[in-house]
């Protein structure tokens, strides 16, 4: 049974060129006068300080396909389904977005084709362009042999995934059987972390902001009836669903007890969050512990979970480490959550991805 | 084995008088010219509209102890450990806060004493007063025979529970072996729910805002070292910990991979979130589904979970309903999560609370 990593990011050269040409978030900056600073990647407004340690170090692991393959070999990963890291192409000027998206997606397709059988990809949509251009790119992506869906953030066209203006995009994705890999980026407003947040490094926005953002986004999709209108639309939700498996019961109860929704006739004629979790949602297994992973399995089923690493993020702090702890935490959680059920564990480690993403076996 | 409800709110008469005397959040408003509107309770700024349907209806179930006892009898609840509902006394003018807190706590103690054996309570602290006054009230509460800890929101003295100015309060609570019942109120900024949030009634702030607020608050306590300084401080976290059991692995991984924390020497010499969950945190079982409840049990242990109802919130929308679905969802989740283990289920339904809160058996 192959091991497949469905949550693993790469910046193709076409995207690196874009980042290096910029000086506002997102961008990559070099410091010729301070070579020890190395190149830095700044993708969150909160990281955008004036120092040479702004953002995070960015090396070849972000853009050199040899590094990805070496990482895969170290961790016994047979296939990676790569996606652009956040913030994708959300920030592109509208008039050039469609053309840039084609260039970036073609560059990703090239990388996959050059390493046949090892790399597949989720494409990226030019969401700042017109809806027509977005739909065109969805249709074009189906002609690229290594594309297996698209990666998308929670902003949509700018006002969230419950925006009815997204309907033509959802319709096209549903029609083309293209899965959305839904990934956070925007987090929560810094005020929620309080005045001492910087004492805690990046822990609060990364550990909590990301999954909470994701949970809100999926719940807004649910409440706006996206899955009532597009019952075959499939979404792979990052980080085991944010916190959706844990909160599904509370969400259902809050809907069932809401006087406004009752008055609007929206309580009875709707699909439940449990139904969505079991028919439309796939979850990656990027949750770093068996407690959360078991809840994800309970909510969506062991046949809907897919192993992931989040590479190249969360590298070991010990420079001599060979294996990445962020990876082994996730692979150990799969074994531990499934107890002795090797078949189910193998499915999560790769079998499910091979089936769901139509990978050659 | 008794059934004990540890998450159940009451406004004693002394608190109702306060709410009725106000016209800014929190307050209770009557509409003499529109008697059909009934009395309305407005506790969230987002609910504070100009209409006669602002906030939520408030009836005797909020303040009449007979209603609480009838609710308990209907649902076979032997003992309720009542607490003031949010926003407690956070908003009191500083100069009168200490005296008001004494009056409110004495009124709660009187209600409990008048129904010996059925009612115990968490007291409320005058957090807007000086720290000395707060500590005095903690010490005074230990002399009231039905008090079993204190209820607290996530604001603390105004800037969160990771505020070092809270240390004398934590020290007093630890010394007096008084548990904190940590409960959300402030939610998240409305912007995170997007421009269509009001279409969804109160679902997003109630279903997500509350547990996400709680998770951030507990994680800030953890990161600021509260439990390193006060290793015996116990916290009963509302709504099964917000989302803490599900996200504990991600929080631990983000800490272990944080370059800033490593530089500060804060990664190795610290207690893990798992350690806190198993030694300092208790969780209520207010999560409305077995998926979440199992994760809570996996994280903290079946001996640390305690049944709750959140009464009088989430009443049935069907006026003819006798049993409250919000209650039966939680009691069924306990049975389902524990499978056939009746002993563990009985412990969660009341045995744990009897032991942890020193209730007469």
UniProtKB/TrEMBL annotation, chains A, B:
It holds the Pfam family Amidohydro_2. Coiled coil: none annotated. GO terms for biological process: secondary metabolic process. GO terms for molecular function: carboxy-lyase activity; hydrolase activity. One of its GO terms (cellular component) is cytosol. Keywords: Decarboxylase, Lyase. SUPFAM superfamilies: Metallo-dependent hydrolases. It comes from the Eukaryota. Belongs to the metallo-dependent hydrolases superfamily. This is 2-amino-3-carboxymuconate-6-semialdehyde decarboxylase-like protein.
């Amino acid at each position: 049974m192959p091991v497949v990593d469905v949550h693993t990011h790469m910046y193709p050269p076409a995207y690196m060129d874009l980042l290096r040409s910029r000086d506002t978030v997102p961008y990559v900056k070099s410091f010729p006068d301070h070579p020890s600073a190395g190149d830095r990647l700044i993708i969150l407004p909160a990281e955008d300080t004036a120092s040479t340690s702004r953002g995070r170090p960015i090396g070849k692991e972000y853009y050199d396909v040899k590094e990805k393959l070496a990482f895969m070999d170290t961790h016994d990963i047979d296939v990676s389904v790569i996606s652009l890291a956040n913030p994708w192409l959300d920030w592109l000027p509208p008039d050039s977005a469609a053309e840039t998206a084609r260039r970036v997606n073609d560059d990703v397709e090239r990388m996959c084709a050059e390493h046949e059988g090892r790399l597949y990809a989720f494409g990226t949509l030019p969401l700042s362009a017109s809806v027509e251009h977005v739909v065109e790119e969805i249709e074009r992506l189906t002609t690229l042999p290594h594309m297996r869906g698209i990666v998308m953030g929670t902003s949509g066209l700018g006002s969230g995934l419950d925006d009815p203006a997204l309907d033509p995009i959802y319709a096209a994705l549903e029609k083309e059987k293209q899965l959305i890999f839904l990934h956070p980026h925007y987090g929560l407003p810094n005020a929620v972390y309080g005045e001492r947040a910087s004492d805690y490094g990046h822990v609060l926005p990364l550990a909590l902001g990301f999954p909470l953002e994701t949970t809100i986004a999926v719940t807004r999709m649910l409440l706006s009836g996206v899955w009532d209108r597009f019952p075959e639309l499939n979404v792979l939700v990052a980080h085991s669903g944010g916190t959706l498996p844990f909160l599904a019961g509370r969400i259902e109860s809050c809907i069932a007890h809401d006087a406004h929704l009752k008055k609007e006739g929206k309580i009875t004629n709707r699909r439940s969050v449990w139904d969505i979790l079991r028919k439309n949602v796939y979850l990656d297994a990027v949750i770093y512990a068996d407690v959360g992973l078991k809840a994800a399995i309970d909510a969506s089923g062991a046949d809907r979970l897919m192993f992931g690493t989040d590479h190249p993020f969360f590298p070991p702090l010990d420079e001599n480490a060979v294996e990445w702890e962020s990876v082994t935490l996730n692979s150990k959680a799969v074994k531990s959550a499934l107890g002795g059920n090797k078949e189910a564990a193998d499915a999560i480690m790769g079998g499910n991805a091979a089936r769901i993403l139509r990978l050659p076996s």
